[in-house]
Write a structure and sequence with these properties.
Layout (H helix, E strand, L loop, with lengths): L1 H14 L6 H15 L7 H16 L6 H7 L9 H11 L10 H9 L5 H20 L5
Pfam family, one: Cyclin_N
GO biological process, one term: mitotic cell cycle
Family: Belongs to the cyclin family.
């Protein structure tokens, strides 16, 4: 079920043109919360919605609105419940929400490599794609 919600979260990020940092941070928040709390399958999309909301608040100049996120769930995540879930997640994670994700390292690493700007752009795009696949749990070895 996590994989299905992760794919949905990535689709929302792509549809809304979120910053590259949003999806990995949202997944980081969700995975850390799930490691601490057992929730019902029916609550997983609500958790994903709230994690996207928190991640956009931390990483985007214009965060996604609760109403918009609720509409992406076909209103199975009611707008009036989102603030309570947001507070519950933040409190459970002790307000440690601004985690460092792999996306944060890409620019620093590429800066040290002798690549022209066109190649750096391509490598950055591929690195972000790889990071998204890893965060979704789609990489198999």
């Amino acid at each position: 079920m996590r994989k299905i919600v992760a794919e949905w979260m990535l689709e929302v990020c792509e549809e809304e043109h979120c910053q590259d940092e949003v999806f990995p941070l949202a997944m980081n928040i969700m995975d850390r919360y799930l490691s601490l709390v057992n929730i019902k399958k029916t609550q997983l999309q609500m958790l994903g919605t709230v994690c996207l909301l928190i991640a956009t608040k931390l990483r985007q100049p214009n965060p996604l609105m609760s109403m918009l996120l609720s509409s992406y769930t076909d209103y199975s995540a009611p707008v009036e419940d989102i603030p309570n879930w947001e507070l519950m997640v933040a409190c459970r994670l002790k307000w440690d929400l601004a985690a460092v994700t792999p996306v944060d390292f890409v620019g620093h690493i590429l800066h040290r490599l002798p690549l022209d700007s066109e190649l750096k752009t391509m490598v950055t795009r591929h690195a972000h794609t790889f990071i998204s696949l890893a965060a979704r749990g789609m990489l198999y070895y």
